[in-house]
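Forgive a beginner's question, but would it be possible to get a protein, spelled out as residues, together with the matching structure tokens, please?
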Amino acid sequence: MQKSSYAMAKFGLEAKEAMPKRDCGFYMKYVFLFTSLIQFLIILGLVLFMVYGNAHAGTDTHLRLLEEQMQDRYNKIITLSGRNANLTRTLNNTLKEKQGLQGTLQKVQRELDKCNSSQLPNATPKLQEMMRIMIYQKMMLEDYHMTIDLINANCSAEKAQLRSQLDKTALARKELEDNCAKASAALAKANQEREGCQQELLSTQTLCESTKSHLELLKRECNILRPDISISLQRIRETISPYSCNSVHEELRRLTQRTEGLFLQQQERDTMYREKSACDVNLLQCRFNCSREKQELEKRLQEADKQLKGGQEEKKKLLAEKEQLSKEVGEKSKAAVQANYLKQRLSICEGAKLDTFDITGSWVPGTLGGSVRPGPFASPSSYADPLRNLGIFGSAGKISMEEMQRLVQKMMEQYMATLRNPSG
């Protein structure tokens, strides 16, 4: 039989082995061992006594070293206390941020768990549909960006046109103000001329009244004297006709000539009176013409005032349109920022889904703790319906900013409603 390393059980009938005998060498080994140990201890004590035998010198050096170390440690303690206070504040802020992020993470994790629990059986088709929707929305966002750029270009052109119209209106207003100033100067000059004409008219009317009264008096006297003188001369002529006296005839002839001169003067005065009447008519005509010119100047001044008011109203309208355009540009900028934010969200979602899933839509283990599955998203029809109703690709340049904002808002509301109610 082969030998085994295991001990065999021995029964009482078998013979027991004899104990080996120990000789003197066995005990001498232990004696030498303990002797060597005692010698080692003695030598060690001597060495320690030689090294640490000078107690006072070693104590002073050690105390000095301890003081230096204590000062160094004190400075380090002060520095570390300031650093500890800064780190404490930083730690408190970090803990607050950590709590906020943990709350957000828990909310997102719960929503994701709801999405994953509701959409686990058909995760791959939903993912493919979501990828198509994301690509479609990305195309829509690019189309929105193109539309916004086009609208911004149109707004810039309209703004430049309105600025040119404002400059033209300012020039027209300046011209109207110049014309108004000229018309005011002409009106003032016409008023001065009118006042002068009125003064001349008053003086002429006074002179005319006095001349007229004097003329009437002279006319009456002439009418009375003319027949009397004619009769007297006729009688004198009949009386002296039988006599031949040259001196008398000469005197009579002079009297006749003077009489004829007086009558001629009276006729001339009548002529002057008629000329004066004509001058009065001309003066009235001039007065009428001045009144008409004054009315025309007043009308021109009123028209200039109306044009000036119209220019001011047009300027106000242009300023209001400019403010409206500025508001529209601000709203379009906000819509562009919102669209860019939505694009970034879609890019983040797309990147997260691509990191979480492989190309075929299968679940990649180890992502998000290894227990998170692809979440639910709304069906493509829910996102595509508002886009299909608007006809984005057919009329990209005709969509308004309000419709685009409503579309983006509706898409976000549908997405958030889907996240809140994954079972519906």
Summary: Residues 65 and 407 are 79 Å apart (CA to CA). Residues 124-144+333-420 form one domain.
